[in-house]
Amino acid sequence: MYVSVRDIPRGAPVPRVVVVLGLVSLVTDISSEMVTAILPLFATLALGLTPLAYGMLDGLYQGATVLVRLLGGFFADRLRRPKLVAGAGYALGAAAKLMLLPVAGAGALSAAVAVDRAGKGLRTAPRDLLIATAAPRDRLGRSFGVHRALDATGALLGPVVAFGLLALAPGDFDMVFVVSFCAAVLGVLLFLQRVPERTPVPDRPVSPRDVVALLRIGGFLRLLCACAVLSAATIGDGFLYLVLLNGESVTTRWFPLLFVGTSLVYLALAVPFGRLSDRHGRNRVFTAGYGLLLCAYLTAILVGGFLGAVLCLTFLGAYYAATDGVLPAAATPMLPAELTATGISVVQAAVAGGRALGAVAFGAVWTVTEGAAAVWIFAAALTAALLTAVPMITRARDPRTESR
Known about the structure:
Distance between the termini: 23 Å
Order of helices and strands: HHHHHHHHHHHHHHHH
Oligomer: single chain
CATH architecture: Up-down Bundle
Structural class: mainly alpha
CATH superfamily: MFS general substrate transporter like domains
Keywords: Membrane, Transmembrane, Transmembrane helix
Subcellular location: Cell membrane
CATH topology: Growth Hormone, Chain: A
Organism: Streptosporangium saharense
GO molecular function: transmembrane transporter activity
Protein name: MFS family permease
Number of domains: 1
Helix content: over 70%
Number of helices: 16
């Protein structure tokens, strides 16, 4: 049986399974972020991709998870086997690292990225379901914040490892891919051995008709629309870092450490923002996160040099801390218990789809203009998105009322 929130004392600490899943994410993110940190350089320098081609690759990186996220959430609810579905996703992510070794062109790189993102999409909603069912409703923000903080620790360490490996062997991307694969396998083993399997029998099978019924939940639908509008106006991290590189705020040597700076801020703020969302409203904190993202855009183009890079990374990390874990915590109280994973996957798919469109659009704009001009255009688009989304999301049912 799933752990019921009624079985957890009100003042209980974060459940053990949340910490274990956080450690799994820590190890897995070391693997993933090692690759993510060098992917812009590998694609543009080693493979010679244009900004438009990299934008399409980044769009694939974001968009490959959309359908798989939905399938992962649906089958986790239908089969009541979240560990099985999530485990398959972790295994796919590990396999993708091996696919990177023979890559010599955009096609092979795109295939490896698609498999990696499919694995991430498959595992995300079932993993978040395990967190949501283990945590008390009034501590959802904190529980997701603890998980995301551990996840961010891995995201911080991954680029450091990649930086160290490339410092030892400049240009040896294959070494990074091999070490990344080993870390991914360790994450799979930790997940299989330390996360308990819970397989309750559902009252009836979940059907696609049940998924459509989610869209009739007013607060959930408004949250979903707000997520889609806001995410479509986002710039991928890699692109934003390339803008800093192009503006000479950083050099190629230090490029992988930009990911470290973002993750460090994310790590520091994930739990405080989670607690803040439990206390003052998850929708408010989520919306404020995109205001912080807008600040990141503006500092990237208005403030040059080392200070501009530091401020940009600070705002970017704060944006992730205010949105990544807060979003599933905001959605969960609106959802029927038997469709929690599906509902979480729907909002996360909306975010991934919006980011995919944004990545392709930003690459196209950069190709016909230049980096700073493209950021200005997206800053204007994000401002318009905020003006559109804030009324939607503030009308959504406040999750705080569901946790009492």
